[in-house]
């Protein structure tokens, strides 16, 4: 009696965990669950073809590559730069602290970040990747990634503080 092929999702909790991490990463890039699912699906198929079914860096690199290709194709999402923010306002807002972060303000702030800023924050803060590991995924020098991460953190803080103060007004 022949058995049907096993579903890899049922058999391997480690693989399921890896794909869930990949989905979180893709969601950080796209901010759209449907697009994130498509990216992870494409990346998983690529992983199956290559035989690299256990490598998080490989999965993240493929997801990022597919996302960049899609972005280039669609020519979407305007970019907002940290340099566009008034220096005095930024300095004032970064000196303020808040004990409680408004979740809605946080979500709105994340949505306003560039995809690459959400991506580097997610890899560093959620996945606990080092700047060197992120640099390898991005194909950039470590110093560039360190700078990007710092600026993304500062921009997120500024946007959260601005969103929280607007909500309380």
Low-confidence stretches: 76-99
CATH architecture of the largest domain: Orthogonal Bundle
The CATH superfamily of the largest domain appears as Winged helix-like DNA-binding domain superfamily/Winged helix DNA-binding domain
The average pLDDT value, as a whole number, equals: 76
Structural class: mainly alpha
The CATH topology assignment of the largest domain is: Arc Repressor Mutant, subunit A
Number of domains: 2
Strand percentage lies at under 5%
Q: Quaternary arrangement of the chains shown? A: single chain
CATH class category of the largest domain:
Mainly Alpha
- Total DSSP E strands: 0
Shape: globular
Write up this protein.
- The chain has 169 residues and is mainly alpha-helical.
- It folds into two domains: 8-74; 82-168, Winged helix-like DNA-binding domain superfamily/Winged helix DNA-binding domain (Arc Repressor Mutant, subunit A, Orthogonal Bundle), CATH 1.10.10.
- Helices cover 74% and strands 0% of the residues.
- It is built from nine helices and no strands.
- It starts with 7 loop residues before the first helix and ends with a helix.
Write a brief structural summary.
The protein is mainly α and 169 residues long. The protein has helices at 8-11, 13-30, 33-50, 56-74, 87-95, 103-112, 115-126, 131-138, 142-168. It is built from 9 helices and no strands.
Index terms:
169 residues; mainly alpha; Arc Repressor Mutant, subunit A; 9 helices
């Amino acid at each position: 009696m022949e058995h049907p092929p096993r579903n890899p999702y049922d058999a391997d909790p480690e693989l399921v965990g890896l794909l869930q991490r990949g989905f979180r990463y893709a969601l950080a890039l796209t901010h759209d669950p449907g697009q994130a699912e498509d990216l992870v699906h494409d990346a998983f198929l690529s992983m199956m073809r290559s035989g690299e079914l256990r490598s998080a860096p490989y999965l993240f690199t493929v997801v990022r590559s597919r996302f960049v290709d899609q972005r280039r194709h669609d020519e979407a999402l305007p970019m907002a730069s940290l340099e566009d923010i008034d220096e005095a306002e930024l300095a004032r807002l970064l000196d303020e602290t808040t004990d409680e972060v408004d979740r809605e303000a946080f979500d709105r702030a994340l949505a306003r970040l560039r995809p690459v800023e959400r991506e580097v924050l997610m890899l560093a803060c959620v996945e606990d990747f080092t700047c060197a590991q992120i640099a390898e995924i991005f194909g950039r020098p470590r110093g560039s990634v360190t700078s990007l991460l710092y600026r993304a953190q500062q921009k997120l803080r500024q946007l959260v503080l601005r969103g929280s103060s607007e909500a309380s007004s």
